[in-house]
Fold this sequence. Notes:
- The protein is mainly alpha-helical.
- It is 77% helix and 0% strand.
- It has helices at residues 2-29, 35-40, 46-55, 62-74, 88-123, 128-142, 145-159, 175-181, 183-209, 212-219, 224-235, 237-253, 256-261, 267-276, 280-307, 310-313.
Amino acid sequence: xxxxxxxxxxxxxxxxxxxxxxxxxxxxxxxxxxxxxxxxxxxxxxxxxxxxxxxxxxxxxxxxxxxxxxxxxxxxxxxxxxxxxxxxxxxxxxxxxxxxxxxxxxxxxxxxxxxxxxxxxxxxxxxxxxxxxxxxxxxxxxxxxxxxxxxxxxxxxxxxxxxxxxxxxxxxxxxxxxxxxxxxxxxxxxxxxxxxxxxxxxxxxxxxxxxxxxxxxxxxxxxxxxxxxxxxxxxxxxxxxxxxxxxxxxxxxxxxxxxxxxxxxxxxxxxxxxxxxxxxxxxxxxxxxxxxxxxxxxxxxxxxxxxxxxxxxxxx
Length: 316
């Protein structure tokens, strides 16, 4: 039963990726502008434009373009940038490393912080600490990420001068120097993603605390701290992992605003630049990377939920 559920989730993920690929291709086709015109400039002759459009494969019907694109994608060939002529792999190489570096640090900080604060709030429901945590996280969830970023820039970079306002990396910085340069985007993302994870951790544990076996343990006099750490937390792993996976997916694919505000040379910023130059192959490649990451993380979360459920691990 458990293996069937896992295989079914994987099958759904594959179908979802195919549907997403169709949507990405269709949506990029309706972007205004012509990649050949942008690449050659306004002074290009009709003959030159026609030759470049043929070279880029823009002269064939859209459905044939999709078949060619999917074939190249499945073979690992992301194609050639329509705006600059460089391979997309070379453009993405450094940028994806920058994004993974920043999001990795954010994950290392936000996940332990969120689980800890969520546990503390669940240990003292209705008390002062719980009210402070829940009120604070609710307020942060309601605030847009760009507002948090601008506020931190004004406070930490402009007023106090503690950290740089622009997160530019030349590639020669060491680890701690890179963390210092990225302090503002890291702080922004930690604040944005931690709020939701804290609330869901608290909600998941309190939901489990209403179970009959937990109530029996309370009646037997088992300390609340032990009940939460030894019993409730393990049974709340499924929803907690799902929330963590959703927020990690946001870190990889939803940092467009943050990377743009801080001029950080990441993958999301590269996709924004591709939209501005009408570099359709680049936008399609970045979009598929984001979507694949999102689907894989959600798939991992679903499998973790299945494995954490004793009724599915040991079917009768």
